[in-house]
Write a structure and sequence with these properties.
6-stranded mixed sheet, elongated, alpha+beta, 5-stranded antiparallel sheet, single chain
Length: about 300
């Protein structure tokens, strides 16, 4: 009886062991199937075409106008986003197609041209700045320039460079008339200048007078305002003559100052003519009369 019970328990245990072994085998097979299916899914996923990169975007507005004065340094901007593997070139578009730079390499024989490359981020966007620098700008540099990215297809913007000639101007007429003891004030302003001058020199005839305080001359210069003022509190005849102002970055200007000492201002304003022709010598009158008689005959 006991032997039969023991045999019964052994059979039950064997059945349970084989049952769980079968379940484990099925689980492993299903895991393998899932793994195979996953590989198939991965392979299917990899078969999809890659996402296209975003197009090149210029942060610099097309047809931007830059104004520079002769002798200064001009900076032509070209800020780009999503440049990818593209290469930036600067091209001059005038009467001909002139390649200036490719990347950081200058291809122009004129070494005044150079590309400045900077990178910066703003609102999670990466921008690249490819500015074209032109040193010692000349009038012949004016014109249209193209900033081109070698994407597929290539894309570009245009920048217009205007070149101006800075010049000085002294307020008032080209000739000024004063009485001895009067005050003289000359103001020199720099016009069409894109940057303030480093200095402004004043000259009386051929003498530089910026520091002639002992001669009664005072010069005040406001570089940020692009202006300079010369004042003489008590003008004397020695102060007569030509006054010129020369800014460091502009053409100079001049005016002539007459300090009257009993002369007729009207006569001086007409270059010494005025009514002074009536004050001729007797011999001059005789010559004039003889000329008239000859003409009448």
């Amino acid at each position: 009886m006991i032997a039969m019970e023991l045999q019964k328990w052994i059979l039950c245990f064997t059945f349970i062991v084989f049952h769980f072994a079968g379940l484990c085998a099925e689980t492993q097979d299903s895991d393998l199937d899932l793994a195979d299916g996953g590989d198939i899914q991965n392979e299917l996923g990899a078969s999809f075409p890659p996402l296209e990169s975003p197009p090149v975007h210029f942060a610099t507005e097309n047809n931007t106008v830059v104004t520079a004065q002769t002798g200064s340094t001009a900076l032509l901007p070209c800020v780009i986003n999503n440049i990818g593997d593209g290469t930036v070139s600067w091209i001059r578009r005038k009467d001909y197609y002139q390649l200036l730079t490719v990347g950081l390499t200058t291809y122009s024989s004129d070494d005044r041209f150079q590309t400045i490359h900077l990178q910066h981020s703003e609102f999670f966007l990466a921008f690249q700045d490819w500015t074209l620098q032109i040193k010692f700008v000349q009038q012949r540099d004016a014109g249209m320039y193209e900033c081109q990215v070698s994407s597929h297809p290539s894309t570009s913007i245009f920048v217009q460079l205007n070149v101006v000639e800075a010049r000085a101007d002294i307020e008032g007429p080209s000739e000024k008339y004063l009485k001895p003891g009067s005050g003289l004030r000359l103001q020199c302003t720099v016009l069409q200048s894109t940057e303030p001058p480093a200095y402004v020199f004043w000259y009386h005839n051929n003498r530089m007078i910026n520091y002639d305080v002992d001669r009664g001359i005072n010069v005040t210069t406001e570089l940020s305002e692009k202006s300079s003022t010369l004042t003489i509190t008590n003008a004397a005849t020695r102060h007569s003559g030509n006054y010129s102002c020369f800014p460091s970055n502009a053409q100079g200007a001049s005016t002539y100052v007459h300090i009257l000492n009993g002369e007729n201002p009207a006569a001086m304003q007409h270059g010494g003519r005025g009514l002074s022709w009536l004050q001729c010598s007797p011999s001059s009158w005789l010559l004039i009369a003889f000329s008239l008689i000859v003409l009448m005959c």
